[in-house]
């Protein structure tokens, strides 16, 4: 049971990192992306390749994953963000579909549908991490680091510029802000930080394949952000934990066929999102944030 809980905790951390980095785009910049699983996958495949052919050092693999994901996101953002947001959604969807094809067919690098196996253990200052406790500490460390980076960014002038663009792009342009450059920077930062989740995921499983980086994951991450609360630092973590614990809880219901868990899970996801949009449109954490702000204003 302890091993199961540790496994669940690591996966919650991985998904929380992805949800937080997506929220940096959705909640603070008003940019909706359907390609977040792509940057996660690029980070994961980069880590696997570097660990097997260059070095399993945590620092080397993390730097390589972040750099490649940032470069790919730049190639997407530069043309797509010069137009209105809906075009970026379409472009990101196209990138996601293309990435799945590449992950599936570039067998010499990605292993194709069979994936990559026998990835060596990650080394932290030369010491390999192989225990469950070690991986949980690694996942939690990455989660805290990413949360701190995002918190610093959203409280800086960059964060204020992003929120100004989200609220009114025309007003930001009128104030002399370089909207395209700021939005491009936010996409690059989000993708680079998302790649760190790929570092934890790859070394933890010692195996990756394309099934972990599909459009379904991008949609699930968006659901985590919306349910947890956009524009909130805590919201994506709450959403990730809730949507990861839900299927785990369903599997323990007596008499429920395991083959039907996936279907019931999708129904519950949809029902939760509908109810939140009606009663808590800001999400679980977002609604609370607005109430606190309203109370402070009244006082």
From TrEMBL:
Annotated compartments: Cell membrane
UniProt organism field: Chitinasiproducens palmae
Top-level taxonomic group: Bacteria
Main location: membrane
Membrane topology: Multi-pass membrane protein
A Pfam family annotated for this UniProt entry: BPD_transp_2
Chain ranges passing through the membrane: 7-25, 31-51, 58-81, 135-154, 185-207, 219-243, 263-281
Keywords assigned by UniProt, alphabetized: Cell membrane, Membrane, Transmembrane, Transmembrane helix
One GO cellular component term noted in the UniProt record for this chain: plasma membrane
Protein name as catalogued: Amino acid/amide ABC transporter membrane protein 2, HAAT family
InterPro entries from the UniProt entry: ABC_transp_permease, LivM-like
Gene Ontology MF terms in the entry: branched-chain amino acid transmembrane transporter activity
């Amino acid at each position: 049971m302890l091993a199961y809980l540790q496994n669940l905790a690591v996966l919650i951390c991985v998904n929380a990192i992805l949800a937080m980095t997506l929220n940096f785009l959705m909640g603070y910049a008003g940019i909706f992306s359907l390609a977040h699983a792509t940057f996660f996958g690029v980070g994961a495949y980069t880590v696997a390749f570097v660990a097997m052919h260059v070095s399993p050092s945590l620092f080397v693999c993390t730097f390589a994953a972040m750099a490649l994901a940032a470069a790919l996101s730049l190639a997407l953002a530069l043309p797509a963000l010069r137009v209105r947001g809906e075009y970026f959604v379409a472009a990101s969807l196209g990138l996601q579909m293309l990435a799945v094809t590449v992950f599936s067919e570039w067998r010499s690098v990605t292993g194709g549908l069979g994936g990559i196996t026998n990835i060596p253990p990650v080394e932290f200052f030369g010491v390999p991490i192989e225990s469950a406790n070690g991986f949980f500490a690694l996942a939690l460390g990455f989660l805290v680091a990413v949360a701190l980076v995002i918190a610093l960014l959203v409280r800086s002038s960059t964060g204020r510029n992003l929120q100004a663009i989200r609220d009114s792009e025309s007003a930001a342009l009128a104030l002399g802000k370089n909207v395209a450059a700021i939005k491009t920077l936010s996409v690059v930062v989000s993708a680079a930080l998302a790649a760190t989740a790929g570092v934890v995921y790859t070394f933890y499983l010692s195996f990756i394949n394309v099934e972990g980086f599909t459009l379904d994951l991008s949609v699930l991450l968006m659901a985590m952000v919306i349910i947890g609360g956009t524009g909130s630092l805590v919201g994506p973590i709450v959403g990730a934990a809730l949507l990861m614990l839900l299927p785990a809880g369903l599997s323990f219901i007596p008499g429920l066929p395991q083959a039907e868990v996936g279907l019931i899970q999708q129904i519950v996801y949809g029902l939760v999102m509908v109810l939140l949009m009606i009663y808590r449109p800001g999400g679980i954490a977002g609604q609370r944030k607005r109430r606190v702000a309203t109370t402070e204003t009244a006082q």
